[in-house]
Amino acid sequence: QQFDVGTDPPQKDDPLPTIVEETSPDSTVKQIVEELNQQLLNQEQETDQTSPEKETPKNE
């Protein structure tokens, strides 16, 4: 538990700032947004096709 406690505090202190500084926020945010948008579009297309199948169990 001692080494666990030692590794936890530094990660909880400032995990985002260090990561952001190293990965450059602009590019990272853009990539994340694009990925999320693509995932949302894919989910919407899938739900449109499978919407009747998903609605059937709900009605039951």
TrEMBL record:
Biased composition range(s): Low complexity: 34-44
Ranges annotated as biased composition (Basic and acidic residues): 51-60
Domain of life, per lineage: Eukaryota
Region (Disordered): 1-60
Protein name in UniProt: Uncharacterized protein
Organism from which the protein derives: Trifolium medium
